[in-house]
Design a protein that fits this description.
The protein is of the alpha+beta class. Helix content is 28%, strand content 25%. It has four helices and 14 strands. Strands 3, 4, 5, 6, 11, 12, 13 and 14 form an eight-stranded antiparallel sheet that branches. A four-stranded antiparallel sheet has the order 9-8-7-10, with no helix packed on it. A two-stranded antiparallel ribbon has the order 1-2. A hairpin with a 4-residue loop joins strand 13 and strand 14. The longest helix has 26 residues. The radius of gyration is 26 Å and the shape is elongated.
């Protein structure tokens, strides 16, 4: 039960706290909060920011933008501490609004959901070239990676590149490939989504035959669903757990570049 008392005019006042006061406190320190958040973005998450250029591991345009916004918010926060009044003009208020939207967008991109586009056919027919998908970045905080999950991860030889494949081997699994068929812990591993477009067997390549091996602890073995045309763990090894970005879960757009048309029948499709 919340206790109340009356003010001098007899109006009931709650002892729980003053929401208006909390709001005022937040508004007073908003510039500091945003400046600190952008600084953390530059220190810890620069490789996850949008507006990347080429193969750079750091998003240089976003670094410039965030540095400018940090200076903007830091300036106005220091001014407020000095009790100096500087009226923000229309442009400064516009920058504040854009900055707040950007901050919310970066929170979503870095911690919650991120969008990716499929540029190759290594996951056909599950994922088509031109598919745009969303990846759940926090799900593996609460659940374990499961065999069969379609995940986005940082390519171990070149971590600035994002790959998407299906998890086939978990830590400790024993895996072998015989004539294209995958066996996990001596059992055939079939998802129903894999496809084989080349009827020929490559005897001198790990594509179609691999001797039994064990997946190291803290690592995963990944394969593309388009088994005959996928550059995956068979060729470059295991994916460390820390490289996993998240689980792909839904298509939000799909563009067929060959026919210059939207694939409306794929929009909203869950990824399995």
């Amino acid at each position: 039960m919340n206790e109340t008392h009356t003010d001098k005019e007899g109006t009931p006042v709650s002892r729980e706290g003053n929401p208006r006061g909390m709001r005022h406190l937040l508004e007073r320190h908003l510039d500091l909060i945003i400046a600190v958040f952008y600084t953390l973005c530059l220190i810890f998450w620069a490789d996850q920011l949008p507006l990347k250029m080429g193969t750079a591991t750091v998003s240089l345009p976003m670094v410039v933008i965030l540095t400018a916004l940090i200076a903007h918010h830091a300036f106005y926060y220091v001014v407020s501490l000095l009790k100096t009044t500087i009226e923000k003009g229309r442009f400064q208020r516009f920058v504040d609004e854009i900055s707040q939207v950007l901050a919310m967008a970066l929170v979503i991109i870095i911690f919650i959901v991120q969008a990716f586009k499929i540029p190759s056919g290594s996951m056909l027919e599950t994922l088509q070239i031109g598919d745009h998908l969303l990846v759940n970045k926090f799900i593996y905080t609460f659940v374990e990676v499961e065999r069969g999950d379609v995940v986005v991860f940082k390519f171990p030889p070149e971590p600035h590149i994002d790959y998407i494949k299906r998890v086939v081997g978990l830590p400790g699994d024993r895996i072998r490939i015989e004539a294209k068929r995958v066996y996990v812990n001596d059992e055939p591993f079939v998802t129903g989504f894999e496809q084989f477009k080349d009827s020929q067997l490559q005897t001198g390549s790990p594509r179609d035959n691999m001797k039994e091996f064990q997946v190291p602890q803290g690592n995963y073995f990944m394969l593309g669903d388009n088994r005959d045309n996928s550059f995956d763990s068979r060729f470059w090894g295991f994916v460390p757990e820390e490289n996993i970005v998240g689980k792909a879960f839904i298509l939000y757009f799909s563009w067929d570049s060959e026919n210059s048309a939207v694939r409306f029948n794929r929009i909203g499709r869950l990824i399995r």
